[in-house]
Amino acid sequence: xxxxxxxxxxxxxxxxxxxxxxxxxxxxxxxxxxxxxxxxxxxxxxxxxxxxxxxxxxxxxxxxxxxxxxxxxxxxxxxxxxxxxxxxxxxxxxxxxxxxxxxxxxxxxxxxxxxxxxxxxxxxxxxxxxxxxxxxxxxxxxxxxxxxxxxxxxxxxxxxxxxxxxxxxxxxxxxxxxxxxxxxxxxxxxxxxxxxxxxxxxxxxxxxxxxxxxxxxxxxxxxxxxxxxxxxxxxxxxxxxxxxxxxxxxxxxxxxxxxxxxxxxxxxxxxxxxxxxxxxxxxxxxxxxxxxxxxxxxxxxxxxxxxxxxxxxxxxx
Length: 317
Fold this sequence. Notes:
Layout: H1 2-9, E1 15-18, H2 24-30, E2 34-37, H3 46-56, E3 60-63, E4 80-84, E5 96-99, E6 116-119, E7 144-148, H4 157-168, E8 173-178, H5 184-196, E9 200-204, H6 210-215, E10 218-222, H7 226-232, E11 237-241, H8 247-255, E12 260-264, H9 270-283, H10 285-298, H11 303-316
Parallel strand pairs: 1-2, 3-4, 4-5, 5-6, 7-8, 7-10, 8-9, 10-11, 11-12
């Protein structure tokens, strides 16, 4: 969606073909994009999308799916091809490979000689708002903590993070992001927790999150795209791996000092690790300041613009 937004600002008509996971089309429509559902969740290949590609007369196809294989793309008559791939586990006969993960430049991509590799933090696909320089000052006392685990919360991790944060930082306010795919039962539990304490504020699928991040002193987050948004806003963070494909994000950003990878969602001692990490960073504003500088230095928020220009240039050649 971040890439689509920039392409649209360049005058492109952008449409999505997505699987039938509940709620996905509605999220796209709320953002002003057209889309169609094809295939079941986790079962989408290029053949299901071809009729729409031909009907739309698409000049470029951007693929962001683990279901599509490189062999699907070795066929005549396809438009400019770009693939968003964080694994480098197969050959890609495409024009562009995009991977904005930290350390992606070390992955062994197998591509034809003409393929452009847009890899590394410079190509993190963030919305345009994250290109603005954050007006951040590092306070000596942690007053506000952001909690965000991503679009869904299958493990009930948000509630646990709220409890661990309260134990570690009894006086801090909590800004809790509720993603668009949270289960209704989980939302009700979070609402009950927020009603019981005035220092907890829920943010239901906010249209923009950048200013909220800048207003917080520290974040506790999942290991997905949010880690790059936090880096771009200079927000020090403790991050937790929820899905295996978040490993590259966490390893790369933690190695470069932009966040601290505290553990995995299934760790039996995760609560202790989160509480210790929060207490330590709260007590060391110099470490938080160093993390803030490292994050913004790595991720300038212009990755989607760079990738969009590459797609447009290929369409116009």
